[in-house]
Amino acid sequence: CIFLVFLFCFHRKSLSRSSVRSRMSLKSSKAYNSLQKGTVIWDPKPLQVKKIFEALKKGLNEYLEAHQAELDYLSGRHKDTKRNSRLSFSLSSLQKQIRSVERYIRKLEFHKSKVEELYEAYCIQCRLRDGATNMKHAFSLSPSTKASRESLVELYKNFQECTEDMCFIEGALEVHLGEFHLKMKGLVGFARLCPGDQYEVFVRLGRQKWRLKGKIETDDSQTWDEEEKIFIPNLHEKFEIKVTELRGLATILVGVVTCDSINFFTTKPKAIIVDITELGTIKLQLEVLW
């Protein structure tokens, strides 16, 4: 009975794996050059991928609703303009705006469907991987025979292939996460911030880095040598923020914090205020636009 279940799982795995590869072969190999067969495979994180997928889907739905509302408004104006001959000069402009919004809605719908397709394929590979793990455990509890040893070898191979496919899909999904536009809004510290103080803020997301320096002016305003940076979202990495105070040639660490990006997938700019010190005496304020 166990062997029949194994054969069934293996058959489903073969069909699903070929399906995953055929769908993704349409994409440029350049986007996934670090995820090809033969490279080192890390451990996939299904729970994290699920959280990112749900946040991404929610954000895409928000964009669709906002643009659908804009389309409804423009369509209403278009009807009013057609009825009023004195406003015919703006009819052409409205038609162009309507076509533009309709095109963007179609792009968003395709984007959403592609994300859902990738996640569905990811879930299939995840279930097959879990099935292979359970089968390995069942075989390990039974008496060792030549057939069971051969089955264990095959199960281990299937487990590795599922793991590789999951990582491949994770890389494909990351391509559809868009961009985060981070804007520096300044430090908040009340009495802790004095005119003449200089600070360095270092923001990291995986291999992406942003280093900027700022100064507290005499009127308590702040000047920064760079105010905006674009980051590409990452499925597994969190934002790491480090703030140091510059005193001549010396640097004093103010604090290091991490910030999850799940809540950034939204249509409106999101203000982020993080406590840099443990007591919250110095905070960093950023604005994130997805």
UniProtKB/TrEMBL annotation:
Residues 1-16 form the signal peptide. Residues 12-290 form the FAM65 N-terminal domain. The keyword Metal-binding does not apply. InterPro entries: FAM65_N, RIPOR3. The keyword Signal applies. The gene is Ripor3. It comes from the Eukaryota. It holds the Pfam family PL48. It comes from Urocolius indicus. Belongs to the RIPOR family. Keywords: Signal. This is RIPR3 protein.
